[in-house]
Amino acid sequence: MMLKQCAVLFIFLCLSCADTFAESYKYNTEVTLEGALVLPTADPEVTNCDKPHQFPAINLPDPISVVCDPMDTGCQGETGVILLHLVLKQPQMAKFKKLKGKTAKVTGTLFHAESGHDFTSVLMNVDSISR
């Protein structure tokens, strides 16, 4: 019986500390993330207007943390990030549309939300998308 209780406690502690073991990335540094390319809809209260907006995003299989440069005192780190709004130029948007719904690798730089047009707390300026 004691062994079963210890096992349950161990599992609970692992699950409750999941963010502690999340991979960590830095803002303004090129990174490559792998996940499903999706087109979620942001609710009107998030978009600061009367209608919902769809936006390109990557849905990660596991949460990540995004940390600040220690010298940047105005920066806000984030933990438990699973969905990232993708900022795409025309060539990347064409690639996104082809691969939407599939798993892909996305390379770019991460930055924190700054306006009502940023639909997740962490966004990525995308340089490339590949299968």
Overview of the structural elements:
The protein is α+β, with helices and mostly antiparallel strands and 131 residues long. It has a single domain, classed as Nucleic acid-binding proteins (OB fold (Dihydrolipoamide Acetyltransferase, E2P), Beta Barrel), CATH 2.40.50.140. It is built from three helices and eight strands, in the order αβββαβββαββ. It has helices spanning 2-16, 44-47, 90-99; strands at residues 23-26, 30-38, 41-42, 53-54, 57-67, 78-87, 103-112, 122-130. Strands 2-5-6-8-7 form a five-stranded mixed barrel. A two-stranded antiparallel sheet has the order 3-4. Residues 3-19 have low confidence and may be disordered.
Compact overview of the structure:
Helices cover 22% and strands 44% of the residues. The chain has 131 residues and is α+β, with helices and mostly antiparallel strands. The relative contact order is 0.23.
Task: Describe the secondary-structure layout.
Blueprint: H1 2-16, E1 23-26, E2 30-38, E3 41-42, H2 44-47, E4 53-54, E5 57-67, E6 78-87, H3 90-99, E7 103-112, E8 122-130
Parallel strand pairs: 1-5, 6-8
Antiparallel strand pairs: 2-5, 2-7, 3-4, 5-6, 7-8
Task: Name the descriptors.
131 residues, alpha+beta, OB fold (Dihydrolipoamide Acetyltransferase, E2P), five-stranded mixed beta barrel, two-stranded antiparallel sheet
